[in-house]
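Hey everyone, long-time lurker, first post.

I ran two proteins through the pipeline my lab uses and got sequence/structure pairs for each. Pasting them in order. The first:
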Amino acid sequence: MGQIWPKYYNKTRFCTKVIHSSLYYSQVISFEDDMTYKKPWLSVEDQLKLLRQRGLQIDDHAVAKACLERIGYYRLSGYMYAFRQRSGECCPLPKRQDPRKTDRIAVDNFKQGSRLQDCVDLYVFDKKLRAIVLDALERVEVAVRVDIAHLLGERDTFAYLSVSEFHTSFCKLRKKNTKTEHAIWLEKQDVLIDRSKEEFITHNKKIGLPLAIWIACEVWDFGTMVTIFGHMKPKDQDQISRRYGVTNGRIFASWLETFNYLRNICAHHSRLWNRNIEKLPQLPAANDTPWVASFVDKNQNTSTRCFLELMMLAHVLKKINPNSSWPTRLRDHLHSFPTLTKVGLNVAGMGAPADWAKMLEQ
């Protein structure tokens, strides 16, 4: 069912039309109505009662209570969402004009056979997945920092200060801005240096500033590293990216931006397994990188969920260390995905193609 917009649609009103089996109803909401949050505080016991009322099976009351007390109802609800029933087709709201989002909405009741323990198992699976991803991201961050510092440092000990070392856009003053992006980046690096309690930073500051790039790079966070790589000259980007099996440095720069987005998700303990990745990377040609073919011109679920980023990490780690066990550890963890076929959940929800295990083994 396509879009059905009411004739009276305007800036202050919108209409949703939902088909629930044979039931058809419309709900009109005015932005001028009182939108104050009205859901009441609930005790853990009341939270469990509400979940039962909505059809979620609770096998052990004491264990369930402990889980809600330890994890929190609201945090766990992000994992419960996948277990909720879906409506019939509905007319998308303006905010839902996104091809990755379905025209069906989640209702309060849970799918038949849903258990609270299943939700907790999925939460634990995702928690372990984030830890595995952070391990990979650390290796990528350290390796790329070294490559940037080594390449630029060969030409100039304090290369990060030199506008001639970067693309002109990095050092160009844009309209309405009082500082260049390069100046803003340098200020951020200064903050990181001042904040650092590392002995080697304290020692070298006593010797004198500025710090050599191979010293300064040790305080860069992922975002700082991504910014400087993204503004390096194309030939320098290409020289570094080739070390990671990506011939085009601009494509690799987009990978690093996506890795930074992934790092923020993991570092803040956010849900990862079925998240729609907002920072989508550019992909090299399938002729150069065969596994990419599984994500080109495929359905949105495959190209916007995290398995693509996991394959990118595996690709890069194999270049950093050909004997890396990380792809195998990731494969083994994905094999441990909770048995949730009864509610229609599996690794496909992560965007994993049918031959995902074979792809990780290549």
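...and the second, right after it:
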Amino acid sequence: MLLALLAILVAGSGTGSIAGRVTTAPTCPVEQEGHPCPPRPYAAHVTASAGGREVAAADAADDGRYRMEVPAGDYTVCADPRSGSSFPRQECRDAHVDAGRDTEVDLVMDSGIRGASGGGGGPPRAERPPIVSDPIPFPARRKYEMRLYARRHYGLDRYTLVHPHVIVEHVTATSTYRATWNTFASDAPDPELHERPGTCSHFVVDPAGQIHQLVPLGLMCRHAVGLNWTAIGIEHVGLSDGQVMGDRAQLAASLKLTCWLRSRYGIALRNVIGHNESLSSPYHHERVARLRHQTHGDMRHATMTRYRAALRRACAA
């Protein structure tokens, strides 16, 4: 009776919890098919902040697991190295906590094994731009579908995105953000290849310059044939390359987001590519023969030459 009363009091107190596991990756310089490099647990210092104020903190155990009790609300959860060194790099994720519920937040920190610049001239550290969390459903079923897709197309037995090497810029070919979100959320077989999981992108930048995050960076997303295994996807709401490049607010937000992602993962400027440039990437890998030369028409090389020039200036600022 006393335990039941206590449970009611706790549930009514408006608190929930953030729990998860901290790991570091990559764990080898190059990941090759048949030689997996699984992430390793890391005893990081984990914090939960709201409105720029630290609300809770915990030290992860040797197995990387941690737990924090917090009031219901929205938080930025960050894992920091306990040694005070630069590596592994800080990793942050946004999280929403409901009263009386656990919110799982797993954090993968960059181990630095591939160098501070990822072996490709990464930029100076960039600040994280304002990002609105608007996740599409990505339940266990969709993760299973993504795992099967990765097996078929890349020979990888995982649905996670581990230390990405490439950022792919896209144009949605839709006129509204909500239409894009609905397409990605449906998990319907794509109209071109007719397989699941449905297409998606990690981020969408709308014409007003608002950045929306739809998928956690730790999950693989279907947005570029041959590159999903190692690429972050950024969609821009619009109908053409020219429309996106001519929208100052949208372009400025896109550059800030891409600078931050380059800094966070040590991605070289040359590995920021347009969807139309996918076949030229050294990371392009496709096991299905009929798809090895498949690409799309958005964000062409001429567009990306301009975009990368603007990105070089923006990241150096």
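Reply from user beta_strand_b:
Welcome! Quick read of the second one: The helical segments are 2-11, 140-154, 177-185, 241-245, 248-265, 301-316. The chain has a mean pLDDT of 86.
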